[in-house]
């Protein structure tokens, strides 16, 4: 059984993500940032390692990281609140400290624009109370209904 499938808590998934980053990070890294974004059935994962001077060294997102974030998203989804749209995970080489920030409300940023229909999928998968659907999201739903948008 994989570490992701065996994880029974968000903390265990944080450990899986952190360990995976450390094992794949380039030499000389000081801080790593992994950003996971998902709306409906579309997701994006980026991993960036920087050195002590802030110089980007690269980074390699992995399938294990992606699976862990997807599992984490399902664990943290709440009735009427939905699931987070973006998670930013930061790990420091000096002390192994991990911090995670979840964003449920800001419009997520993808490298390429996504079709507004993905926002309809997201609400089908993780319903939200009407008052918890931000205005920008309502605009994407209207675009999907009209058949416009990317």
Give the total of beta strands: 5
Q: Enumerate the strands of the largest sheet in spatial order, edge to edge or round the barrel.
A: 3-2-1-4-5
CATH topology: Murine Class I Major Histocompatibility Complex, H2-DB, Chain A, domain 1
- How do the SSEs run, as a string of H and E? HHEEEHEEHH
**Second CATH tier, the architecture:** 2-Layer Sandwich
Quickly list its features.
single chain, 150 residues, alpha+beta, Murine Class I Major Histocompatibility Complex, H2-DB, Chain A, domain 1, 5 helices, 5 strands
Briefly say what this structure is.
With 150 residues, this protein is an alpha+beta fold. It has helices at residues 3-6, 10-24, 63-76, 117-125, 135-146, and strands at residues 31-39, 42-50, 56-58, 86-92, 98-103.
Plain-language structure description:
The protein has 150 residues and is an alpha+beta fold. The chain has a single domain, classed as Murine Class I Major Histocompatibility Complex, H2-DB, Chain A, domain 1 (2-Layer Sandwich), CATH 3.30.500.20. Helices cover 36% and strands 23% of the residues. It has five helices and five strands. A five-stranded antiparallel beta sheet has the order 3-2-1-4-5. Strand 2 and strand 3 form a beta hairpin. Helix 2 packs antiparallel against helix 3. The longest helix has 15 residues. 27% of the residues are buried. The mean pLDDT is 93.
């Amino acid at each position: 059984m994989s570490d992701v499938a065996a994880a029974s808590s968000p903390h265990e998934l944080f450990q899986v993500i952190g360990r995976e980053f450390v094992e794949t990070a380039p030499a000389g890294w000081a801080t790593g940032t992994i950003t996971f974004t998902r709306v409906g059935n579309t997701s994006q994962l980026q991993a960036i390692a920087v050195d002590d001077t802030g110089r980007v060294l690269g980074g390699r997102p992995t399938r294990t990281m992606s699976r862990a974030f997807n599992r984490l998203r399902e664990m943290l989804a709440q009735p009427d609140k939905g699931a987070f749209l973006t998670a930013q995970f930061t790990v420091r080489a000096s002390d192994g400290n991990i911090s995670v920030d979840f964003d449920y409300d800001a419009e997520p940023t993808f490298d390429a624009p996504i079709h507004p229909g993905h926002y309809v999928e997201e609400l089908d998968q993780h319903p939200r109370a009407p008052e918890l659907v931000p205005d920008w999201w309502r605009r994407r739903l209207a675009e999907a209904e009209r058949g416009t948008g990317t």
